[in-house]
Amino acid sequence: MQSRAIHIHRHGGPEVLEQVEVEVPLPAPGEVTIRQTAIGLNFADIYQRRGSHGPHAAAPWPITLGAQGAGVIEAVGEGVRNLRPGDPVAYLQPGGYQVTRNVQADRVVSLPTGISEEAAGANLLRGLTAEYLLRRLFVVRPGDAVLVHAAAGGMGVLLSQWARALGATVIGTVGSPQKAEVARAHGCHHVIDYRQEDFAARTLDLTGGQGVAVVYDAVGKDVFVPSLRCLRPRGMAINYGTASGDVEGFDLQLLHAKSLSVCRPTLRTFVADPRELRAAAQALFDIVAQGQVRLEVGQRYPLAEVRRAHHDLENRLTTGAPVLVP
C-alpha cells in the first residue's frame, strides 16, 4: 500500500519538509494499521526538525516527524486483542506525519463516544502531558496557586482548565491582548501580558507576596530564571518546553533560600508502561466527559501545507492545538 508522508533529509527550517510517497507493509505481529484523519502538530516536532535537544531519539535519515495522531484502524496484526478494523483510535508513536501507517498496538488508545478523532489527534499528547504535570509530577491541590506560561497555547489552555477543575487559582502569561482573551476563556483567573508588565512582580502581587505552588513553563530560556521569583517556599518550577531556547546553566543557590525544586521532564517516561498510558488517557477522557476540560482544535492545515504550519507554530502565530489534516 502506498501512502503520502512528510520526510526531512537534513535539519533546518520549514523548507526541509518534503512530501513523498512511501510503502506501508501489512501490520506486523502486535501492530495495527491506521488511516489517519488528524495528525498532531507539536513544538517538539520543530525541535526535532531543527536538530535541537529533546526527548526524540536519534534516527536514520530520512526522518518522519510527528508523534501523535488519530484515525480508523484498517488492519490488525497477529496477536492484537481488543482492537478491530473500523475502531476510532488515537496513538503516541514517532513517525506521525504519514497518512496511513503502522503503529504498535500498545501505543494505541480507543476513543470513547464524545471524543472525536480530530480532537484526539490534535490534543492527545498535550492532554497526557497535562495529566502527569498536574496529577503525578506535582499534585495540584485545592487552594494552590499555579502559574502557566504560554497560557493561550495548545498546552496552556489544557493546563489552565484542568488546574482550575482541581481547585487551583490559575495565573497565565500571554504575549498579546488577543491571547489574553483566549486564556481567560480557558480557565485562567488572572492573565498577565508579559510584554506589558513584569510577570514575576505581578504574580507575587496577585498572591499577596506568597508566590505560586508551581510554575508550568513551556517557554524556557526567556522566563525560567525569573519564574523562580514567583514560587512560594518549597515550590516547583517545571520546564517542559523550550520555545525561546534551552535553559542553560544557572546558579543552584537561587533555589536555596526557599528550598525550591526544578524539573525538566518528558511525557515519554510517564507513559512508557502501556498500563500508565491507558490510565492517563482514561483520566483525560473522564475530565473531558465531565465538561471541565475542552479538547479544542486550533488552526487546521492540510498535510501538503506542513511548511506553513511549522512557520506559524514556530513564530507563535497559532492558538490552541493546531492539527494537520491528511
UniProtKB/TrEMBL annotation:
Domain Enoyl reductase (ER): residue ranges: 12-324
Keyword NADP appears in the UniProt entry: yes
InterPro entries registered for this protein in UniProt: ADH-like_C, ADH-like_N, ER, GroES-like_sf, NAD(P)-bd_dom_sf, QOR-like, Quin_OxRdtase/zeta-crystal_CS
GO molecular function list: mRNA 3'-UTR AU-rich region binding; NADPH binding; quinone reductase (NADPH) activity; zinc ion binding
Keywords noted in UniProt: NADP, Oxidoreductase
Alphabetical list of Pfam families matching this protein: ADH_N (PF08240), ADH_zinc_N (PF00107)
GO cellular component, one term: cytosol
PANTHER family, sorted: QUINONE OXIDOREDUCTASE PIG3-RELATED, QUINONE OXIDOREDUCTASE-RELATED
Name listed for the protein in its UniProt record: Quinone oxidoreductase
Source organism of the structure: Caenimonas sedimenti
